[in-house]
Amino acid sequence: RRPSPKSYLLWDIVLMTVGSYTKLTDNLFILLVIRMFFVFLLLNSCHTNQKGCMKIMCTRITDSYLVLNPVKIESVDYRNGKLIYALRPEPTNEWQRVFAQISGVSFSWGRGPSTVEFQAGKASIQSYDNETSNVQNKFKQWVIKANDEYRKEKESQLAKKLDREQKELVLAREKEEKRQQILKNLKL
Q: 54-56 and 46-48 as β-strands: parallel, antiparallel, unpaired?
């Protein structure tokens, strides 16, 4: 199997890291090696879907089951002027927030993503008898868009978290290098 570009990137990062951290104490170096292992897991736990987009495949890394298992419409019912959709897996409050705020989708007057009510794995939206098919088509688009927006939000949060951790490691390295330099200059 031919190595992927992300594998080459990983080894470049490892070599740069090992090369620049050789002056650090053993404990800090071990922490950095562990960190690189988790970066390796992150890069190797991704796969490319049909559209060529990266999709994170580890729930521990993304902290979200819904990135791996996007919300889908399981069934639909019509009662008392409302379309009621059973959704699986059950959307979290965070996913519902993203759903209510999606943009760039079509909607009918008075019936948009923000008017959908969620309760116990079900979503309902008001619909007149003669427009149920139109509302259903729009609802399907909203779910797809909300899943995509939710995934992007989680990936952005992950990127910020990794960036913050990387900055903390650089700061720790600089502090340790300064400490080592001070200790080197001290004589007993």
A: antiparallel
Residues 114, 103: Cα–Cα separation, whole Å: 10
Give residue 34's Cα distance to chain centre: 22
Contacts of 7 (CB under 8 A, 6+ apart): 43, 44
Task: Answer whether 55's CB lies under 8 Å from 151's CB.
Answer: yes
Estimate the share of the chain in helix, then strand, then coil, as percent rounded to the nearest 5: 60, 15, 25
- CA-CA distance, 69 to 158, in Å (whole number)? 17
Report CA-CA distances (Å) from 185 to 22, 23, 100, 178, 179.
Answer: 19, 15, 61, 11, 10
Q: What is the pLDDT of residues 36-94, one digit of tens each?
A: 666 655 555 544 444 443 444 343 444 578 888 899 999 999 999 999 999 999 999 99
Residue positions counted in the chain: 188
Helices 132-185 and 93-101: crossing angle, nearest 10°? 120
Which residues, in sequence order, are CB contacts of 68 under 8 Å at separation 6+? 56, 57, 59, 62
Give the predicted TM-score (pTM) of the model.
0.60
The closest of 73, 75, 57 to 65, measured between CA atoms, is: 57
3-state secondary structure of 152: helix
